[in-house]
Write a structure and sequence with these properties.
By secondary structure, the chain is of the alpha+beta class. It has five helices and 18 strands. Strands 6-2-3-4-18-17-16-10-14 form a nine-stranded antiparallel beta sheet. It has a five-stranded antiparallel beta sheet with strand order 5-1-7-8-9, covered by helices on one side. Helix 2 runs antiparallel to helix 3.
Length: 264
Amino acid sequence: MTTESANTAAAAATAGFVVKSLTPAEWKAVTASIQALVEEATFDVSPDGISFRAMDPSHVALVDLFWPAGGFEKFDCTKSDKFTVRVEDFAKLIRRADSRDSIEISRQGSEMLALKIGSKREFELHLIESSQASTPLPKLSYNSKFTITEPAFDRVLNDVSVVSNHITIEAKKEKLTFSGKGDTGTAIVELERASQEVPELEVKDDSKATYSIEYLLKITKAAGSASDMINFEYSSKMPLRMAFKLGEKDEGRIHFYLAPRVQE
């Protein structure tokens, strides 16, 4: 064995982690959020927590995840590691867990990921080689920020989707207007600032941009289970950032960036 091979083998033997959550809710939200955009996922595990970032193949949406070590019941990781899985296969195992099952995920220098559900069910998942390139976060400034309840936003999307595949979001100081237009007609939904549906609305400059309803529905359905509230930030004709809190103590977060529709 060469020195290089020996060093690689030694590194593989010492690298590893064990993380445990008391319920599967967070993992189900994480896997659903990622699966909405990509087919494979490379998770980075460090003493600080678990992170993931990737863009969908069409370069319309980006997901950025951070789940800190403090959000877990148990988190043992002394040396940074990473693992890549097919998201569908990983999600299938996570979905085997009932609402009261704990989930323990571990890797000890092997090409297998160990997953323990509750106290009596154990699985192993083959890891794959990553084909993902590093994805930088977009550098953006936001003129409008608002918080909306997940049920209210889901209802808005479904209302507008009746007539259009795209939704225009217009933020003014006192209200939000969601609208869409198609061959069959138009739809307009207005929500007032400081209402039960929109507890927060901050507008430095009036903002207006149009986004894909298909992507917004997928994202909301996937990550909405993680949080009752969705935080939005955007500017006119600029990407939209959606933020979902992750975990009962809100330590973690899932961010989505969605490119605007460019209209001629």
